[in-house]
Amino acid sequence: MDDKIAFVGAGPGNAKLITVLGKEKLEEADLVVYAGSLVNPEVLEYSKGKKVDSYGMTLEETTKVMVDAINEGKKVVRLHSGDPSLYGSIIEQMEELKEYDVEVERVPGVSSVFAVASALNTQLTLNGVSDSLIITRPAGKTLGEDKIPALSRHGETMAIFLGTQKIEQIMEKLECPSGTPVAVIYHASWDDEQVIYGNVETIAQKVKEAGIQRSAMILIGGVVDPKNYRRSHLYGVHQPPL
User: Fold this and answer.
1) What is the phi-psi region of residue 79: left when phi exceeds 0, alpha when psi lies from -120 to 50, beta otherwise?
2) How far apart are CA 37 and CA 106, in angstroms?
3) What's the CA gap between 81 and 10, in Å, rounded?
4) Is 11 within 8 Å of 82 (Cβ atoms)?
5) Which tens digits make up the pLDDT trace of 116-152?
6) DSSP string, 3-21
7) CB of 88 closer than 8 Å to CB of 107
């Protein structure tokens, strides 16, 4: 019996952006428990096994479905969007599975933050513009207070997950110039991908007019509209042979 559950990152949306190993795990699976509409249905087509949508299920209910399948000798995949290490709530799931002596195998995925960079044809770090990437989220049901104001003072690239519904409040919290470029990317890498450009002052209204309320990422900083960057040292001078 294969008593390990594979926690697989489905990638950002495009079915071809799952890893080779992730695809193999899906092809072998007898049961796939997936994270609702966050996972592109095309990714689920890699598996001929039973599919269970975990949206609306409690942790205990999800655990029982997976453990029952493992006890029946079946191969199980827990499928998360992007890479499960970012806002995937996987530690609590793994802790619950430990109670049943069920081990977990982790399969990384392509995060949506990288699909966002691709959609914008930009870099998340750029010499002379931003040397760091800050990944964060706004306060909500599971987060009492966020650190967006303090983080925005650094002047580095900020990728804000799970914030589209609160974009107006987020823009008001930012402590960076009102002209700082901002992009909101809906369904990065999906067929219906949509990109909205603006700045701290204008983006909230543009997003409202577009009717986007979820499944989008907010990217803030000079990399959104790269100007006055410096050439990389790698290409700036002749390099000795490696």
Assistant:
1) beta
2) 21
3) 5
4) yes
5) 999 999 999 999 999 999 999 998 776 778 999 999 9
6) -EEEEEE-BSS-GGGS-HH
7) no
